[in-house]
């Protein structure tokens, strides 16, 4: 293996280079090389200052995550950072790309930091269930101030080099040749003594009001719910305001080790790789190149069509959006404009960017204009006949090689493709609502979808900052298909004696953003309703028949006040009771454990069926769908990882206990039974 660390000398400045693709992770060889080169520079009388720089696309993006869980190899990153800081000659970090986690800590160990304006700095450790464990929780508040350090470490979101510069985290922003500038900077500072050490500063951590931490937590309660890492990050940063550096790093080390050995960190680290694996399509060679997409067409300017369009507009891709009548087109365009405007109001976009994005939109009533598009996404309502009609029209007008996509959330892509003479160009692109915000994209692979169409869809997803997962054709694909047993059991549990509040509470305590009934009220109880108020076959039908369609009507499974605050509904309870009596279902006390077994274990069982039928490429893809599409708590890894952690035998036992109540149409997944029997796991 070639040494990732090398050096060269410019006059009296030593440049230490790291070249460890793809992201210059701080693996053992990098750590060893850094120490070796710092020591060599120190000993060399001809050297007066050092620059640390990285080749490739980025400065160090952090510790090497693939080393986690393996026996440690010396030197440890904290010792490397200390060694840099204790170098007797000034060390300048030259930052481009993303200085993340351990990378940001290395930069903080350097005496000075020079960065390109396009660079980003951050502490994403929290996303891995960790905290910056190489002195970052102690050095960052000393250099950048407590509030910014708290934000960076507990949210995991990187900040721009400009913001870092304003906070003192970067000493100089430079344009052009970064390393040349860093060398010049090193020349300027080479004689300054004492060397500025982050660990020795205390001006920004002295006299900090301890109330700040509680206030921060209160204002960011969502970050802390159920998740242990943000709290540990906060505590370490608070320690920096209370104790000397030497004590602070000891506490940081202890908490880092505690987190590292915990289940949440394991789940999050699993998920990090799961997300990246999802982008890989089985059976499709690396040599397949994506088709070029320079204009996208969207059919339907409703909530979905508008949201979908915004993704492309924001990424600088022109969109032709088609509607049936002017009023609907105007309404859809106005909603997009309003959504952009509200993003701008929050400071996440400039007015100029809003204008730019909207300037790329071509709203039209002329269906034939879609012939200019390289990708056309149909986003009309869920009706097979309507979709088939649209696709046969598209088949006649779309240019050769254009990709024809449906945003269906349930329907059979093969059947849709069958009305065209080009089934290879047809694919499902299932966006989640609100489509401009939700990260997940299910890419539905029809039996005849061409490889390069899939590759294009995956590449495009990355471009519009979505996480794409390939799904096979089946009713509801991966995500919605798994919702079906959950919804069915949740409703059945109502008849047997549970309340919507109890079921929702179990889900929220588990870590979901909301429970099944809160979700139904938010999304619309009427979604998928047959629209016949006389036909009442479920509690949902009964609610829809009396206009309780959810939050939008001020009533659904819950009652809502004018501020959309929910409260339990006596009316709903009496509907449930009536329904139960009519069906002859006897009421009993329902335990929270039974709710878990009937709503979550059944989801795992459905996930196993999806795997068994080859409708998902791998168990981890199912987890990615559930984390990004439905808010499954990432610190529990996703339903399949969670099932593995619980033990598949426990899941099977729970389902056996409930089997009689699960209904005649419920059945065990053979794969689940088999794996449980053999003591195997889905994800590991
Ligand atoms: C830490 O630093 C702890 C310390 O505080 C204390 C220690 C004591 N290690 O994401 P991409 C791989 S914790 C190993 O597709 P992008 C990744 O798996 C660390 N591998 O690229 C993928 O491999 P493959 C804190 C890594 O351009 C390939 O690189 N740092 C690492 O979309 C490309 O990745 C983080 O959490 C790593 N650290 O985004 C940063 N990072 O091609 C994590 C990436 O085989 N990384 N890989 O699938 C990122 O956020 C993004 O990768 C980054 C680039 C923004 C850098």
UniProtKB/TrEMBL annotation:
Superkingdom classification of source: Bacteria
Domain 3-hydroxyacyl-CoA dehydrogenase C-terminal: 476-560, 595-679
GO molecular function, one term: isomerase activity
PROSITE patterns listed in its UniProt record: ENOYL_COA_HYDRATASE
Enzyme class: oxidoreductase
Reaction equations catalysed: a (3S)-3-hydroxyacyl-CoA + NAD(+) = a 3-oxoacyl-CoA + NADH + H(+)
GO biological process: fatty acid beta-oxidation
Chief location bin: other
Keywords tagged on the record: Fatty acid metabolism, Isomerase, Lipid degradation, Lipid metabolism, Lyase, Multifunctional enzyme, NAD, Oxidoreductase, Peroxisome
Enzyme Commission number, as recorded: 1.1.1.35
Stored CDD domains: crotonase-like
Location within or outside the cell: Peroxisome
Associated pathway: Lipid metabolism; fatty acid beta-oxidation
Subunit field text: Monomer.
Family, similarity comment: Belongs to the enoyl-CoA hydratase/isomerase family.
The name this protein goes by in its record: 3-hydroxyacyl-CoA dehydrogenase
Organism: Sphingomicrobium lutaoense
